[in-house]
Design brief:
36% of the residues are buried. The chain is built from twelve helices and no strands. The termini are far apart. It has helices at residues 2-15, 25-35, 40-59, 62-71, 74-86, 90-117, 125-128, 135-152, 161-169, 172-184, 187-214, 225-255. It has one domain: Glycerol uptake facilitator protein (Up-down Bundle), CATH 1.20.1080. It is an all-alpha fold and 256 residues long.
Length: 256
C-alpha cells in the first residue's frame, strides 16, 4: 500500500511538473523579451488590430473582434514586464512599461479617431459586454496568464496556447470600448472598460511573474530580505486593490 501511494504521488508530481519540458532560461528570456519589443512593425500591427477591433465592436461582429485579438502584440509587452520583475531587472521593467504605455496610448487614440468618424453611434451588445467587469474576468485573466506564460516557456515553440489566451483574455476590445465611451461621453461605460482592461493586464502580469519565479528565472540583481518583503507586500496590496472592485461588482450583479 505504501509503495502504491508513493508511486501515485510521484506520478502526480510528474504530471503537474513545470520543469520537465521547460526550455532553457536563455531561450525563455530571448523568446519573451523579443515578443515585448516595441518596434515599427509591432506598432503597425497594433494599429491594424485596434482598427479591426473597433470595426468589430461598432458593427457587433464577434468574428472580427476575435481576429483583432489574435494579431494584437499587447500580450508580449505584459509578459516582458513580468519577466523583468521575476528577474529583478527593474531598469528593463521600466523600459517595457514605457513601451506598453505607448502602445496603450496609440491604441486609445486610434479608437477615438475611428469612433469620431464612424456613422454608427449606438452601442452594440459587443461594446456593452466590455463595460461590466466581474470576478469571472479575474478568473479568466489569471488562468489565461498562467496558460500563456507556461506555453511561452515550453521547449515546443509550435503550440496553440498563445492564440487561445489572446482570445480568452481580450485586451483589445475593452481598450476600443474606452475610445467609444469617451467619444460618446458615456462615463460609466468608460469606467467599466478601463477597469476590465486593468484587470486583464494585471492578472496576466501577476500570473506570469508567479510562474517565472517558480521556474527560478536567473536574477539580474539581488535583494535583501527586507526588500523582498517590501516587494511581496506591494504585490499583495496591488492585487487586493485591483481585485476588490470585481468582488463588489459580482456581488451586486448576483443580487440584482
Amino acid at each position: 500500500m505504501k509503495l502504491f501511494s508513493k508511486e501515485l504521488t510521484n506520478a502526480c508530481k510528474r504530471a503537474f511538473s513545470l520543469s520537465d519540458d521547460t526550455a532553457s532560461h536563455e531561450e525563455i528570456k530571448t523568446r519573451i523579451l523579443n515578443g515585448g519589443q516595441v518596434t515599427g512593425t509591432n506598432m503597425c500591427i497594433l494599429i491594424c488590430a485596434i482598427l479591426i477591433a473597433s470595426v468589430g465592436l461598432n458593427t457587433g461582429s464577434a468574428a472580427v473582434i476575435i481576429g483583432a485579438m489574435l494579431i494584437s502584440p499587447l500580450m508580449g509587452s505584459i509578459l516582458a514586464m513580468a519577466y523583468s520583475v521575476a528577474a529583478v531587472d527593474f531598469q528593463r521593467f521600466r523600459r517595457h512599461f514605457y513601451g506598453f504605455m505607448i502602445q496603450v496610448s496609440i491604441s486609445f487614440l486610434v479608437s477615438v479617431i475611428y469612433f469620431l468618424i464612424s456613422p454608427i453611434k449606438a452601442p452594440t451588445a459587443e461594446l456593452l459586454a466590455r463595460t461590466q467587469p466581474s470576478l469571472y474576468d479575474v478568473i479568466i485573466a489569471t488562468a489565461g496568464g498562467l496558460a500563456g506564460i507556461i506555453g511561452n516557456t515550453r521547449t515546443d515553440k509550435a503550440n496553440n496556447v498563445i492564440p487561445g489566451v489572446a482570445i480568452a483574455t481580450a485586451l483589445m476590445p475593452p481598450l476600443c470600448t474606452c475610445g467609444y465611451s469617451l467619444v460618446q461621453g458615456r462615463w460609466r461605460m468608460l469606467a467599466g472598460a478601463v477597469y476590465l482592461f486593468t484587470v486583464n493586464c494585471y492578472f496576466i502580469f501577476i500570473s506570469a511573474v508567479l510562474v517565472l519565479d517558480i521556474l527560478k528565472i536567473p536574477k539580474v540583481s539581488s535583494l535583501s530580505e527586507k526588500q523582498w518583503k517590501r516587494l511581496r507586500k506591494g504585490m499583495i496590496r496591488n492585487t487586493i486593490f485591483v481585485l476588490l472592485p470585481s468582488v463588489i461588482l459580482t456581488y451586486l450583479m448576483l443580487i440584482d
